[in-house]
Specification:
Length: about 140
């Protein structure tokens, strides 16, 4: 799998080194002499972040159990609150082969775009979202 086409610095003859990051002003990204790498630096602290060209998005995924009781109401509550917090529905999965009113069992898979410069721990890229007091909890704020 090849790397996507990447914008190059003004001079493609520029030697390898740290340059202003075209994906996030105020930060540096390493130019290897041919293309942008995943190495970024902000205020002297370095980390890895994929270089995304226009139209590409980093996604955080979340799973929420919609349970066995009042699944329809819980699904509506989750979609309303999650949507208000930037989460998008990917799919709803049924754990049971035979749905019965009030006894549905299943979960929802949601995703949320992660802006450039936002760093997540490994466990946060795919996480369990909880509903506490009918409020959706979890994810990038």
């Amino acid at each position: 799998m090849g790397m996507p086409d990447q914008p190059t610095p003004p001079s493609t003859r520029r030697p390898a080194g740290w340059e202003p990051d075209p994906s996030l002003p105020g930060r540096l990204r390493y130019w290897d002499g041919k293309r942008w790498t995943d190495h970024v630096s902000l205020d002297g602290e370095t980390c890895l972040e994929p270089y995304l060209v226009d139209g590409q998005v980093r996604w955080q995924y979340g799973v929420i159990n919609i349970g066995a009781y009042n699944a329809t109401e819980r699904t509506q509550a989750v979609l309303g609150q999650a949507g208000a917090n930037g989460w998008q529905l990917v799919s709803i999965y049924d754990k049971a082969s035979n749905w019965q009113s009030g006894m549905e069992k299943g979960f929802m898979l949601l995703r949320k775009p992660v802006p450039a410069g936002v760093r997540l721990d490994d466990a946060e890229w795919c996480m369990t979202i909880s509903m506490a007091n009918d409020r959706v909890k979890g994810g990038v704020e």
